[in-house]
Amino acid sequence: MAGPDNGIAAGPREQHWLVGHEDAERTLLHDAVGARLHHAWLFAGPPGIGKATLAFRFARWLLAGRDGGSLAVDPAAPAVRRIAAGTHADLLAIGRGYDEKRQRARAEIVVDEVRPIADFLRRTAAEGGRRVVILDEAELMNRSAANTLLKILEEPPPDAVLILVSSVPGRLLPTIRSRCRRLRLQPLTPPQMEAALARLLPAQDAGSRRTLVALAQGAPGQALSLAAEDGIALAALVREVLADEPPGVSRSYAMADIVLRRDRGFATFLSLLGDGISEALRAASRGGVGVRPGIDWFSAWQEIRRTQDETERFNLDKRQALIASLGLLSGR
C-alpha cells in the first residue's frame, strides 16, 4: 500500500493491511462463512488500536471478497476502489460531523447524522449482496441519536450488517449493547507495534519508532498522532514535569508555549502527562521510584482532567490552563 508523501499511511477506509487482531478476524470469518452472521456488531477496545481499520476490512470482505480463508481483499478490485473513494452504494460510514463555526469536529454525534441509516437500510442492495453500516465513535451519540439507532436495531432488516466502533462502550445505552455482538480488541504487543510502525512511519528512524512504541501503549493510531504532534518532544517535557525538581514558574510558561505550538499539543501533552502520572503511581505502589512526596497526585490529576475538559468544551485559554495544571504538580 502506498502512503502519502509524509510517510504516514492512509486512514481506515483506505488501509488494506492490519497488524494483530487475528482472533477477531477468525471470529468474523467463522460467523460469516457459517451463515450465522449477527446483524449488529460492537467493535470495542482502547482508542487507536485498529477497530475502525478492522471494520472497513470486514466491510470490504462482505461487499467484495468472501474468500473463507482471510479478510484480505484485492485492493485493485473495482468495489474496493469505490469503498476507498466513499462511493460504494452498499456502504454507509458515519462519524462525527464538522462544526463549521468552531472549525473542528463536533463533540457528539447528532440525530441528523444517524437518521440516514434507516433510509439506507430500507433500500435494496445495489450490487445484490449485503448493505453495511459503520458507525465510528458510537459512544459519542447524543440521546436522540442513540434512540434513533435503537429503533433500527430493534427491527433489523435482512442482509444488513451494522458495525458500531467504540472506545468507551459503557457509554452506549444498555439496550444498544444488548442487541450487538461484542468483539473486544486488545492493544498490540510491542513486536506487533514495531511491525505496524515500520509500515505506518517508514520515514521515522528505528530509535524514534521504538520510543513511539513505548509511548503509544499498543495503539498504532496513538503512535501516528504522537508522531504528527512531535510526541517524543512532548514526552520529554512530561518527564521534566515529573522529575525530582519540578519546573519553576518561568519554565512552566516556556513549557506552555512549546506545547501550544503544536496543533493538538494541548490534548497530546495532557494525555502523556496522565500516562506518566499513572505509571509513576504504579511504580510507587510496587515500592519502586514513584512520585514526589507532598502532592496528592490522584486529586491533582482529576483536577487537571476537569480543567482540560472545561477548556476544550468552552474554548477557554489553553495557556492559562496548562500553567495552572503545572502549578498543581509543582505544589504551587
Written overview of the protein:
The chain is of the alpha/beta class. The chain has two domains: 22-184, 3-Layer(aba) Sandwich (Rossmann fold); 229-329. The protein contains 15 helices and seven strands. It has helices at residues 22-33, 51-64, 78-85, 111-114, 116-122, 143-154, 174-177, 190-200, 206-216, 220-228, 231-241, 249-260, 265-285, 297-313, 318-329, and strands spanning 40-44, 91-94, 98-99, 104-105, 131-135, 160-166, 181-184. A five-stranded parallel beta sheet has the order 2-5-6-1-7, sandwiched between helices. The protein has a two-stranded antiparallel ribbon with strand order 3-4. The longest helix is centred in the C-terminal third of the chain and has 21 residues, at 265-285.
- Number of helical elements: 15
- Element pattern in H and E: HEHHEEEHHEHEHEHHHHHHHH
User: Got a strand count?
Assistant: 7
The low-confidence runs, each spanning 5 or more residues with pLDDT under 50, are 1-9
- Class by SSE composition: alpha/beta
Strand content: 5-15%
Shape: globular
